[in-house]
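pls design
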């Protein structure tokens, strides 16, 4: 069975909610809609305090090509535009909407009917995706229309669909594949048309045999779409790792997937694209896994953007007494929340409540030069060295050692017997080196 060749680890799966069907989360009393839910230029609000808005209405317009529109997840009255602490712990601008019912914009198809055929031209498909504000739903939040617009001289040859969901605990993509397989296949065909490619491959790890079997059945009439079972191997959901596993192609250091003719999209993104193109529905809700060993009602919930995470936890049974940490995302790449008032955003794939015992870090000690982090790094880096360079604020040295190639997967921290906070150092280092590179271009 196929996988990628450099590094990687095998953390415990802990897929506690894999058998839990998707449930609709009740609307929040007040939606807090972040104006930055994507990588790229910030959006500009197009509504003011006191405005009445409908579900699906444009709230904020993209501020550039690499940016994404924001739409209202609810109907009601704009209470204010102010700052709120986001999942990263930083104050960010947001639109606060007092919810009054759930009146949708006209033109959005709310039926469950499957619309299989798309008569739009490629440019029109990309335009609809752009207008709908769709970003990468796997957590990267890169605007989808940008990936579908290769730079001059580059040509897409294959669409790689990410159904891996290798992060422990998370099951949102798994449930989506089981419950929306026909829509996902239609979405893949739409993207193939938009990219003008005649080949697509869906990579799914072998711990999801039900999703593999179902998608193989649904895709059978379309020989250009291959469903490929993959060996369990974290972080196989990373773009470069998935491209190698499914196609055998390796993306060079510092390059994007289009360099090897590949475009990668997550299954959640593809379902959102289906809804945008076929149902005229902007991206204002998503599936979120809310999980943890002590949660009484863990599950996979369809949640409107802007729902405070505290309300999500209340719906999942409330915060357990032994909770030690609440993480936005999974345990490997997620971030501990500074406030439960942080709202759900387009990139919120999960909320994990870790018990106090599981959430405690071991006491860090000196690096013993065992090189386990080097062996585990899927990018072929030397995390112990990058961590030391970051600790000593040697940003030029970190840049020379390819700090920007780090995908922040956490394999190094997971394997370190000295409990070194390597991922923390690498995240800080990436931010500093990235700022250094950008300053040179100004």
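designed seq:
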């Amino acid at each position: 069975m196929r996988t990628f060749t450099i590094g990687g680890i095998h953390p415990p799966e802990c897929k506690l909610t894999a058998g839990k069907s998707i449930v609709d989360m009740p609307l929040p009393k007040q939606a807090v809609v972040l104006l930055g839910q994507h990588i790229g230029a910030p959006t500009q609000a197009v509504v003011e305090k006191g405005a009445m808005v409908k579900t699906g209405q444009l709230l904020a317009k993209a501020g550039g090509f690499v940016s994404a529109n924001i739409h209202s997840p609810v109907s009601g009255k704009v209470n204010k535009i102010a700052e709120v602490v986001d999942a990263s712990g930083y104050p960010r601008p947001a639109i606060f909407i007092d919810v009054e019912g759930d009146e949708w914009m006209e033109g959005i198809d709310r039926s469950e009917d499957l619309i299989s055929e798309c008569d739009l031209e490629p440019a029109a498909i990309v335009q609809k995706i752009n207008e709908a504000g769709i970003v990468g739903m796997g957590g990267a939040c890169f605007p989808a229309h940008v990936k579908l617009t290769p730079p001059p001289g580059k040509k897409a040859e294959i669409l790689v669909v990410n159904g891996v969901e290798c992060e422990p605990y998370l099951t949102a993509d798994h449930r989506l594949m089981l419950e929306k397989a026909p829509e996902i296949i239609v979405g893949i065909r739409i993207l193939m048309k938009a990219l003008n490619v005649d080949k697509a491959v869906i990579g799914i790890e072998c711990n999801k045999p039900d999703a593999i079997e179902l998608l193989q059945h649904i895709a059978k009439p379309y020989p250009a779409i291959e469903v490929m079972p993959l060996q369990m191997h974290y972080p196989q959901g990373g773009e470069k790792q998935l491209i190698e596993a499914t196609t055998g192609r390796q993306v060079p250091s510092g390059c994007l997937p289009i360099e090897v003719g590949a475009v990668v999209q997550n299954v959640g993104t593809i379902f959102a694209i289906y809804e945008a193109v076929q149902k005229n529905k902007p991206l204002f809700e998503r599936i979120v896994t809310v999980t943890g060993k002590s949660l009484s009602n863990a599950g996979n919930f369809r949640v409107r953007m802007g729902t405070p995470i505290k309300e999500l936890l209340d719906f999942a049974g409330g915060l357990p007494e032994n909770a030690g940490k609440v993480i936005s995302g999974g345990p490997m790449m997620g971030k501990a929340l500074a406030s439960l008032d942080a709202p759900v955003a387009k990139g919120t794939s999960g909320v994990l409540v870790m018990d106090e015992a599981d959430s405690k870090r071991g006491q860090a000690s000196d690096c013993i030069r065992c090189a386990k982090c080097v062996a585990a790094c899927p990018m072929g880096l030397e995390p112990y060295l990058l961590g030391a360079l970051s600790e000593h604020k040697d940003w030029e040295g970190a840049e020379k050692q390819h700090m920007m190639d780090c995908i922040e997967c956490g394999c190094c921290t997971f394997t370190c017997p000295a409990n070194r906070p390597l991922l923390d150092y690498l995240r800080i280092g990436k931010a500093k080196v990235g700022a250094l590179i950008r300053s040179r271009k100004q």
